[in-house]
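PT: before anyone asks, these are the final sequences, not the draft ones from last week. 439 residues across everything. Please model them as a single complex and drop the result in this thread when it's through.
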Amino acid sequence: STIVLVFEAPNDFEFAVEAGQKVRVGQKLGDV
Amino acid sequence: LLNAWTETPVKWYPIPIAVGALVLVAIQYRKKARKEVHVDADGNEIIRLKGPWQVHVLGALPLRNMSRLWGYVNSLELPVWFRPYGFRIYAAAFGCNLDEIEPADLKSYPSLGAFFYRRLKDGARPVADAVLVSPADGKILHFGTIKDLRVEQVKGITYSLDALLGVERPGTPPPVPAHMPAPSIPVVDDHEFANVNGIEYTLDQLIGASSSGTSTPVSDTPPAPKKFGERIDASVVPELADVPEALRHDASVAAEMGVRPALTRSTSGTTVKPGHSLFFSVIYLAPGDYHRFHSPTAWVVEKRRHFVGELFSVSPYIAKRLENLFVLNERVALLGRWKYGFFGMVPVGATNVGSIKVNFDQALRTNVRGRPPPLGTYTEAVYSAASTLLNGQPLMAAQEMGGFCLG
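LR: through. Structure below.
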């Protein structure tokens, strides 16, 4: 199963993850 | 052979220019054929099975029936004496952490399906102080910005964002309860964005286009905040002390979103605001992962679009080979708004986990028997009755939203 997130955010939004990285519920994905 | 391999001298010859040019032409032709988009009379992209022969073999299989059979087999009650052994073997094979599950007694899970949909203990997943947190345990397959509304699935292969999420067509607003103002969602003009390593899909494909779906209002009572999301209360936001108890949850979400409830009835128009962009992120849940999903931020879900599709595996192996994977598969597009504008979350089913549950939508039924409607069509429900304050289903960051079940 997969979850796709699509969202509008300011241009300075930055992801805090890398492709292939394991994540857990509540872990930071990104921030402005 | 060894002697020939080690002792034969290597001689390099220049390739004739004509041969080199032919190779370049062939590469360009293949790239063009890959990017070719077929559209119907309305200009909507026609979703087709595209990929190497292996995916066409997969496409010929009765995947939906196989998925339901898999679900039935895994719902069978296991002997109590066998459960601890069976689940421990499963946990060892797929890397489940049995120390964090609730209840911890393995005998209390009657079937593998029940164990698969297990809960976690309180505090097992701390919530980061960030605007966007992970909605699930899993692996980040891909992320980035959406350009020309095409989503990249893997490198060089894209799909339309419109196909993924669906679009509002001018003049065809979705039905809503008569006493409620019509919710609006931002509709992007161009429709594609990214998936994994270069394959893209359209926004329409992901969330559906309103012209191909039907809407029904859903008016379930909003659930109480779950443990993961209980972060905002009167001690954190003093203004909440004056809010009636029944509206505390909604007001908390509004506070988290940084807006006054009375001002949150409308989302932005059909494009993103100046200085904003559309972003995407794809998270893959492996068979051993915790399979419930949570809210990735404080937001209001205004509607859901249920696309009945195929149930291909969504493993990274298939994602790299099967184009349009995420717009072919059955999925539930939850659309709404957060503090920065449009927000959408799309749980996508797979062969082994074809059932998608949404806690606040008891009417939703996925992976049901019967001939599926044409690809790209969907049924829509609006959540405007869930909260008159926010005109949708309010969710706190990390609040449990639902999950994936076996079969």
